[in-house]
Amino acid sequence: MVDNGFSNGLNVSRETLEKLEIYLATLKKWNPRINLVSKTTISEAWNRHFVDSLQIFDLASTTFGWESWCDFGSGGGFPGLVVAIAASDRKQHTQVTLIESDQRKCTFLREVARACDVAVTIKNVRIEEVPALGSCVVSGRALASLTKLLEFSEKHRDPDGICLFHKGQSVHKELEEALQNWKLDYKLHPSLTDDGASIVEIGAFQRGK
Question: Among 23, 48, 56, 177, who pairs with 164 as Cys (CB 3.0-4.6 Å)?
Answer without folding.
Answer: 56
